[in-house]
Amino acid sequence: MSSEQDHLKDTDTEARFEFKKEQNAAVKSDKGLTEEVIRMISEDKDEPDWMLERRLRALEQYQNMPMPTDWPGMPDLSGLDVEEIVPYIRPDVDKREGVDDWTELPDEIKDTFDKLGIPEAEKNALSGVGAQYESEVVYQNMQEQWEEKGVIFMNMDRAVQEHPELVKEHFMTTCVPPSDNKFAALHGAVWSGGSFVYVPEGVTVEMPVQAYFRMNSEGMGQFEHTLIIAEEGSEVHYIEGCSAPKYGTHNLHSGGVEVFVGEDAHVQYSTVQNWSKNTYNLNTKRAIVESGGTMEWVSGSMGSKATMLYPCSILKGRGATDTHITIAFAGEGQDIDTGAKVYHNAPETSSTIESKSISKDGGRTNYRGLVHIADGAENSSTAVECDALMFDNESTSDTMPYMEIEESKVDVAHEATVGKIGDEDIFYLQSRGLDDDDAKKMIVAGFIEPITEELPIEYAVELNRLIELEMEGSLG
Amino acid sequence: MSTQVHANLTEEQVREISGNLDEPDWLLETRLEALEALEALDMPDVIKTPGREWTNLHELDFESLVDPLNAAEDKDQVGPDEVDVLPWAEAVQEHEDLIQEHFGSIVDPQENYLTALSTALFSTGTVVYVPEGVDAEDVTIRTEQNSRSLFNYTLVVAEESSSVTILERQSTGAEQDEQYYSGIVEVVAGENSNVQYGSLQNLSEEAYNFALKRGDADTYATIDWIEVNLGTQLTKSGVSTELNGDSAETQIVGAFYGHNDQHFDLDAKVWHRAEHTTADLVTRGVTDDIARSVYEGVQDVGQDAWDTSSYQRENTLMLSDESEADASPKLIINNHDTEASHSATVGQIDREDLLYMTSRGIDERSATNMLVQGFFVPVLEEIAVDELRDDLEELIATRLRQRD
User: Where is the SUF system FeS cluster assembly SufBD core domain (chain B) (predicted)?
Assistant: First the structure.
């Protein structure tokens, strides 16, 4: 065991995610959700009227919508009181649109991202980085070579000012309207920060762009909005990382992600989220895919108290393709309710969903999915595969896929398996000289390999470390 | 609650039904309580996704469908001598203790609106009592509905180390525009017993049907269900087993064939509640024309269900472009010492298979028919009751002949 602990110390994984910072806010809203709070946020951002109007309409929709309560087996949201959440905190930085050099950040913020390893990753593997601290993007940089090709990567607040036509057309209109669900409406009212990515026709951004979201204050809500527009024939890989330290009160993360995949374009959206275990993570993520386009969702859901997240692709044009690869890990007191939704609305569309989950120490994972094949989406195909691994008898794992098939010329397959770690496998590894813990870790690493294969190496390593960290303790 | 049938239902009607059957007071009380509960109960759960209810039971007009005092049927209840196969009125006299012990113990009369309605109003039924150690084959319960509504109740009690095979059929005699058939089946499988319960529903295609069958399997007991649905315009059917004893087993084999505008909402559920229990759920169905199928399969493994094996597969074949097939196979796992899997597929007839057969000189229509019949083979193979298997094969062939 001691070698493992040393290893974890060396990799510094725990320290990287659990540290807290003194709060240092320039502007902080009141708790709760009122028109005054919304007007204050909008004014602080110096927003155009149309955006304020959208916010106020979303607020009205939020107030008129009931909480979702009739989902079978949904996570317990009773500990979430939106009225106690601080929806907006602007950290004390000089430049509102974010600096483009890490050294210009206030020390305590710079220190945070240093510990998270973001500047290091930027140097090595990324085309651009945005970093959000509380409600504001504090760092934003895009390598020049991409800027020259017309690629835009900036924070969402700035995009409202600088690209109003693009934002007006795409922001919470056709992809994720506030009326979609209660938390989308909430997001529409109080959203702040996030990323705006625009890739012109035919441009391939070869290295991933990354945004990192950090929630540092107690009892706050983070509501970043991500809007990705990939024009015809373009290609981009966007990575999102999230973390927050743990406090006694609950945090709320309710992001909104909208992706427009143009004809024959290719977008990959990867997330490794490791919110602290008092965070409610209730997101809406959706892509609209035109003909011949490809949308790939890759996600690792590790942290949070409760997650409800079902990234969705609407395959709108002929021959559009969707791939979902997800992994969920639920430890003690965690309820990770996540899955995938795909609407096949055109002929010859295809989707594959591969979902893996691990639960231990009383954690619960649930795969909740929906595949809808509309009348007329002929020659479409979908394959769904869910595998669950459970470590002990306090943990639970459910799968709830729904398949709505309105078209006969289709090929639909769903498969799910649940199993414990095979005694024979462990015995085999032990007979080769590994101890019990190492054998289990090796089996888990093999189990999640389809996910780690899809991630850039830095992320794959991080995911592996996080899982090792999660497994630590229970296996001793 | 949008559907309100109790506006024209009265306590007197329930008293009259109970009185005609010469029932003891406790049973009348159970019925009256169910009648009273109607007001507060909702329809059985159906699958819902945002913006969509897959089966809308609220649309049914129970006020015009239910005619409690005018039930008419033609019934056969036969079985070998060593088993009691009794019509309800007779069973109430002969086996009151047995009925009092088990009635409503597996399916709660107030589980939902339709079970309560059935409990308050059922006027016909069968009790099958298999004494300890008796092996009984060929119990047949045939019900022909000749009235607007018919409420049927079946109780099967298999004592320790007994075995029984029951074949139930529902059909329509005198047809009316719209009819409602409701049937509740409770099966008590004692230690080491073996109950096989086959059901062939072939009611009129104008009829609505609510069916709920549930078994409780004790240690080493086996309950096997065969659930065939061919008739009605709308069926809401649930078949389930609670594996409450160690090493209990269950199999649920389902087959359906929907054509015209038929709608089948079928669920198969198993609750693993004890150690070393095994379940196997297999359903295959066809949808043609504008028919629609909804399938929900649930494998629920409880915290104490160590060493569980649980398998489920569901396949739907769509023969027309206008038909719809929805499926939701669910796994609920609370014990890690479990091996479980489920799979579901929806597809059409394989074009290569069809090409292969037509290239061998078989005309396309015959080839299609053969492939549909072949599709049902994995289910037919699981049906151990010869008579039911043969009938199902014949009914599938008949339905295929009706295709344009």
Answer: 144-375
